[in-house]
């Protein structure tokens, strides 16, 4: 009843090409942004901001990166965390060695370093496909993280291998409270999500999807597999690199290789599976799910009086079971469920 | 399937130009299997050239050679006066050759409109950064190509399904979308690999009409593989007959129809 | 350069390679017959070992009672997996099934630890980890009796498996299913029952691997990472070949140890973690389908 498009006609291709063509969607987006930018910093507790909202946004950004590579371009990758690590370490080094560098620029440069590593480790994708490619991304994951632990220059020769991330400051304004960190992260993630959405709707995105769906036909049309795949690796790694830098600076407070392990790569992969492979919205939904689930399970275990070891094992089991559940019931993840929900909403309150 | 008199007359008045594609002594083998042996024929501009023959004769391989998917071990391709031993896919696409596939090769994850837009790929100039910002030139370009894609959608009468994911479409419509994707590149030479396979009579008539219209309105040269002899004899200007990778006939439909070798190998007493 | 030390490292590596091969064979079995890359194989190894040890520790079973009991448990697990995970996903693309097995791996790991606790368990097998006397005396090389026994067990298992595959009716059915699901269904092969059997067999292979690995390193969560090590083995050996898995395992095991010992000190150590993967990656660049794998020909 409320969610109808009746009367909303598009009279130009430009209008038809909007990201949110339905007016109600635009209103909803506006409301969400107001809540996110104004209400949450004022009303949410520091715990909520630091432990839930900030990691949600950061992981969503990483999931976006992985979605571009795996969801849109079809190159399965288990090395996400390695690219995040490169971004974090590179940003740290830029801030350390280039005095006065703006922190956002440092993040962008960190992302670019990650992109270059991504291109290097993406070269095998021209010969290798499918599981074999996934296995070779494991090489990326283990080798890159090993390098970061061994090369002393990168960690500024710290004896413990754990370095404190610098404070984030823009023009003297320090981002050190949870509210400020949250707003900074929100800003970065929102812009990058918009850029990603634009990319996947344009020729770049189509080139990725073409290579994913039918690479021979894509070649015949004139898409170049080399360029397309490397582009996917580069953009994806850039996103993961920035996410990794934010992970270190705005969440962990330290820059350590162990934080970027295989487990993290799997978590991000789960996010895009549950959230919806090949969907921008899905990256956010998946991230929210994976971030909130342990919290719920902990509350549940606490409420039932179970020890924490049980809770963590339950977490593994529930994760695993949910992955299987989603793959069986809705392989396109929460994003598709969301779409179906909207379809039903159009008819509400009528059944059909 | 018989066509009416007026269409046959139309075919007779088509302005056929000089030789645009010349294949000389093409031989192709995979390991020990010889797919094509010493094949030579030419294609003239604006004509409709059919390639026929029994299954396994090497017809698809022939198209794949023209298109750059396979490189022949021997022989040369002379395209618009330029000689090449073999083309690569990108080169073929850039020089104005587009094709459809025997087992539909659409991008199943995308909508009809997106599939057709992929055909515009080579004409898009903006780089990915501008596309990410969706600003100015990138936006104008995207809209301009959308206009072109919509023209093709109108031409093929598939407006109603433009936002449908192609995986959900019935077979006949998928073949039409694939034709649209090939047309989107505004090709000079269009290679069609069994465009009417698996279609019923109405669908075949529609497809025939589209092929003829493409040739007539856009002047596109068409090389097509087809098994329906009625269609072949009625719409093509010249026919090449392949059997076991060798050429056994080459000429107008009437000449080929009365060629004894072709009758023995393929047509039977008709 | 001590030549006998080199041989010691080499043989040690080869034997640890045999253990990798054991796990890899489980992968190959399942992939061959159902096209599913079972990421959960490592978790199954862990589960099998943990169940066996758990039965012995918590319920006082003797080893010879615990093993058959675990076999039963693995068979049940295999049948459940087929029923709950595979059957609903039967026509999905390979990548979906692969991701489902990742979820399965997490589930089994959580379940195993929930049932039996997450501390490290010791597993005692009646084979001693002492050097073989005659080798030590004659050539001054230290090779553990345990490792050699493991190699022999592996050999026996491969022999049994290949006999089953080629001589028995079930084996023939498995090979048919591996080739073409539809055709197998068409000739009346009960696909689901075969897959149930398949996963049960893979479970038993996992048990053997679990016992041997567990006795060597202790039964602990790190056992699941062996599954990851099996990946380079499979890349080298091809995903569909049991002899390939063995050859791949030997190569990975040997090269990993040799690299760690000889190259490791030059770059600060810890090479073992990535060397097999990088090796596999380089190998793939040259031969994208592995040593023994089937070349994939795509028709356009």
UniProtKB/TrEMBL annotation, chain B:
Keywords for this protein: ATP-binding, Cell membrane, Membrane, Nucleotide-binding, Transport
SMART domains from the UniProt entry: AAA
Annotated GO CC locations: plasma membrane
Alphabetical list of SUPFAM superfamilies matching this protein: P-loop containing nucleoside triphosphate hydrolases (SSF52540)
Keyword Lyase: no
Any GO MF annotation of the entry: ATP binding
InterPro entries in the cross-refs: AAA+_ATPase, ABC_AA/LPS_Transport, ABC_transporter-like_ATP-bd, BCA_ABC_TP_C, P-loop_NTPase
Domain called ABC transporter: residue spans: 21-269
UniProt keyword Nucleotide-binding, yes or no: yes
PANTHER family found in the cross-reference section: ABC TRANSPORTER ATP-BINDING PROTEIN, CONSERVED COMPONENT OF ABC TRANSPORTER FOR NATURAL AMINO ACIDS-RELATED
Name of the protein in question: ATP-binding cassette domain-containing protein
């Amino acid at each position: 009843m409320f969610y109808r498009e009746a009367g909303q006609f598009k009279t130009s291709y430009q209008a038809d090409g909007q990201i949110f063509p339905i007016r109600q969607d635009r209103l909803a987006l506006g409301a969400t942004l107001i809540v996110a930018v104004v209400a949450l910093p004022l009303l949410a507790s520091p715990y909520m901001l630091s432990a839930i909202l900030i990691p949600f946004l950061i992981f969503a950004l990483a999931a976006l990166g992985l979605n571009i590579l795996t969801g849109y371009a079809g190159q399965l990758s288990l090395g996400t965390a390695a690219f995040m690590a490169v971004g974090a370490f590179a940003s740290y080094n830029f801030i350390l060695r280039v005095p006065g560098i703006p922190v956002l620029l440092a993040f962008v440069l960190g992302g670019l370093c990650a992109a270059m590593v991504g291109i290097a480790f993406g070269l095998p994708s021209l010969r290798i496909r499918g599981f074999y490619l996934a296995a070779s991304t494991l090489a990326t994951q283990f080798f890159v993280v090993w390098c970061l632990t061994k090369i002393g220059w990168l960690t500024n020769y710290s004896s413990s291998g754990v370095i404190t991330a610098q404070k984030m400051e823009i023009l003297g304004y320090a981002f050190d409270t949870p509210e400020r960190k949250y707003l900074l992260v929100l800003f970065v993630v929102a812009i990058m999500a918009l850029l990603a959405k634009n990319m996947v709707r344009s020729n770049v995105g189509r080139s990725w999807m073409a290579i994913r769906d039918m690479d021979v036909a894509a070649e015949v049309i004139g898409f170049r597999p080399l360029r397309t795949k490397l582009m996917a690796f580069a953009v994806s790694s850039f996103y993961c690199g920035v996410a990794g830098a934010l992970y270190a600076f705005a969440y962990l407070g330290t820059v350590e290789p162990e934080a970027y392990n295989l487990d993290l790569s799997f978590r991000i992969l789960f996010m895009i599976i549950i959230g919806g492979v090949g969907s921008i919205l899905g990256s956010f939904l998946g991230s929210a799910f994976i971030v909130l689930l342990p919290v719920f399970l902990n509350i549940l275990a606490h409420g039932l009086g179970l020890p924490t070891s049980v809770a963590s094992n339950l977490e593994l089991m529930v994760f695993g079971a949910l992955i299987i559940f989603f793959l069986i019931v809705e392989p396109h993840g929460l994003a598709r469920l969301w779409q179906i929900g909207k379809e039903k909403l159009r008819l509400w309150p009528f059944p059909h | 399937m018989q066509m009416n008199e007026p269409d046959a007359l139309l075919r007779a008045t088509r302005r056929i130009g000089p030789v645009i594609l010349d294949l000389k002594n093409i031989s192709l083998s995979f390991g020990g299997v010889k797919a094509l042996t010493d094949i030579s024929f030419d294609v003239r501009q604006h004509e409709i050239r059919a390639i026929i023959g029994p299954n396994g004769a090497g017809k698809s391989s022939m198209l794949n050679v023209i298109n750059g998917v396979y490189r022949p071990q021997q022989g040369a391709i002379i395209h618009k006066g330029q000689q090449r031993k073999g083309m690569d896919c990108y080169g073929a696409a850039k020089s104005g050759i587009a094709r459809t596939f025997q087992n539909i090769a659409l991008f199943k994850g995308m909508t009809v409109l997106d599939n057709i837009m992929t055909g515009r790929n080579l004409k898009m100039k903006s780089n990915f950064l501008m596309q990410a910002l969706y600003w100015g030139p990138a936006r104008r370009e995207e809209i301009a190509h959308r206009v072109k894609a919509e023209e093709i959608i109108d031409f093929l009468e598939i407006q109603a399904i433009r936002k449908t994911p192609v995986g959900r479409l019935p077979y006949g419509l998928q073949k039409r979308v694939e034709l649209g994707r090939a047309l989107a590149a505004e090709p000079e030479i269009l290679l069609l690999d069994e465009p009417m396979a698996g279609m019923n009579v109405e669908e075949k008539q529609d497809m025939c009409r589209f092929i003829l219209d493409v040739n007539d309105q856009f002047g596109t040269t068409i090389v097509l593989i087809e098994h329906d002899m009625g269609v072949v004899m009625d719409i093509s200007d010249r026919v090449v007959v392949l059997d076991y990778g060798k050429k056994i006939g080459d000429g107008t439909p009437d000449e080929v129809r009365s060629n004894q070798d072709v009758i023995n190998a393929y047509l039977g007493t008709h | 350069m001590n030549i006998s030390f080199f041989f010691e490292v080499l043989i040690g590596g080869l034997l640890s390679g045999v253990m990798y091969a054991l796990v890899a064979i489980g992968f190959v079995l399942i992939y061959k017959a159902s096209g599913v890359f079972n990421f959960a194989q490592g978790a199954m190894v862990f589960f099998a070992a943990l169940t066996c040890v758990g039965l012995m520790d918590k319920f006082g079973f003797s080893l010879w009672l615990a093993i058959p009991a675990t076999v039963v448990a693995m068979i049940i697990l295999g049948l459940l997996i087929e029923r709950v995970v595979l059957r609903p996903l039967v026509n999905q693309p390979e990548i979906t099934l692969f991701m489902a097995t990742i979820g399965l791996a997490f589930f089994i790991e959580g379940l195993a630890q929930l049932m039996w606790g997450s501390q490290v368990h010791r597993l005692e097998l009646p084979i001693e980890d002492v050097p073989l006397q005659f080798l030590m005396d004659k050539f001054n090389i230290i090779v553990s009796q345990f490792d050699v026994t493991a190699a022999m067990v592996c050999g026996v298992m491969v022999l049994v498996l290949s006999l089953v595959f080629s001589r028995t009716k079930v084996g023939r059915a498995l090979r048919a299913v591996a080739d073409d699901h539809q055709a197998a269904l068409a000739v009346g092969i009960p696909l689901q029952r075969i897959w149930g059997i398949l996963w049960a067999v893979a479970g038993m292979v996992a048990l053997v691997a679990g016992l041997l690995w567990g006795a060597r390193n202790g039964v602990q969560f790190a056992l699941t990472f062996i599954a990851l090590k099996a990946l380079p083995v499979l890349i080298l050996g091809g995903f569909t070949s049991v002899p390939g898995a063995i050859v791949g395992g030997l190569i990975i095991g040997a090269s990993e140890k040799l690299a760690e010992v000889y190259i490791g000190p030059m770059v600060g150590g810890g090479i073992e973690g990535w060397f097999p993967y990088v090796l596999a990656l380089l190998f793939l660049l040259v031969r994208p389908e592995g040593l023994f794998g089937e070349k994939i020909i795509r028709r356009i």
